[in-house]
Specification:
The complex is a heterodimer of chains A (about 110) and B (about 120). With about 110 residues, chain A is mainly β. Chain A has strands at about 5, 10-15, 20-25, 30-35, 45-50, 55, 60-65, 70-75, 85-90, 100, 105-110. In chain A, the strands form two sheets. In chain A, strands 2, 4, 5, 9, 10 and 11 form a six-stranded mixed β-sheet that branches. Chain B is mainly beta. The chains are: A mainly beta (about 110), B mainly beta (about 120). The interface of A and B includes residues 30, 99 and 103 of A.
Chain lengths: ~110, ~120
């Protein structure tokens, strides 16, 4: 079966660093995506990993270990506007198909 | 347009009525996806169109749900005889094609469907 797990909720304070973990078990693997979704809005693309290692993009970084079926999203210098849901999604089909999404992690940033 | 657009943004209907939801993908994107997001839940895949290939309908929850796409443009998701359990936000996404990074999906703002 296809399964993607991530924590339901996390809290952090402004200026801190937070790591959101994602583990996956899928029939295939063609890349892992992280999306950000603010309440009442559409998901927006944050990052894509297909090879092992760390991809850095400004305050956000994403890590992948294919052998462990594991990824994390690292958010640095947290700001209030980072309060949102963070969705982990896997492209599991080499031929291309819809992404398989986790249920999302709701991050609350407080001052 | 610059992004994926969907209409209507909100739809309130009575149980048993049919509804049509529309999606305009980003120009040039051959792949189009429909998802459903119930309150507090993750995105649930419904159907996927890729060019002129037969659509992947494996996510449709029942035969009350159907979707069409005209070429590589507009798609319509139809829900017949709506039930209260159909209440959700219906999200449409498009991507350049399928496979790898080009799977990056760009989402529309969604249609919030409420079935009374």
């Amino acid at each position: 079966g296809q399964n993607i797990d991530q924590p339901t909720e996390m809290t952090a304070t402004e200026g801190a660093i937070v790591q959101i973990n994602c583990t996956y078990q899928t029939s295939g693997f063609n890349g892992l995506f992280w999306y950000q979704q603010h309440a009442g809005e559409a998901p927006t693309f944050l990052s894509y990993n297909v090879l092992d290692g760390l991809e850095e993009k400004g305050r956000f970084s994403s890590f992948l270990s294919r052998s462990k079926g594991y990824s994390y999203l690292l958010l640095k210098e947290l700001q209030m506007k980072d309060s949102a849901s963070y969705l982990c999604a896997v492209s599991a089909n080499q031929a291309g198909t819809a992404l398989i999404f986790g249920k999302g992690t709701t991050l609350s940033v407080s001052s | 347009g610059a992004g994926v657009s969907q209409s209507p943004s909100n739809k309130v209907t009575e149980k048993g009525k049919d509804v049509e939801l529309r999606c305009d993908p980003i120009s040039g994107h051959t792949a189009l996806y429909w998802y459903r997001q119930r309150l507090g839940q993750g995105l649930e895949f419904l159907i996927y169109f890729q060019g002129n290939s037969a659509p992947d309908k494996s996510g449709l929850p029942s035969d009350r749900f159907s979707a069409e796409r005209t070429g590589e443009s507009v798609s319509t998701l139809t829900i017949q005889r709506t039930q209260q359990e159909d209440s959700a936000v219906y999200l449409c996404a498009s991507s350049i094609t399928s496979g790898g990074f080009s799977d990056t999906q760009y989402f529309g703002p969604g249609t919030r469907l409420t079935v009374l």
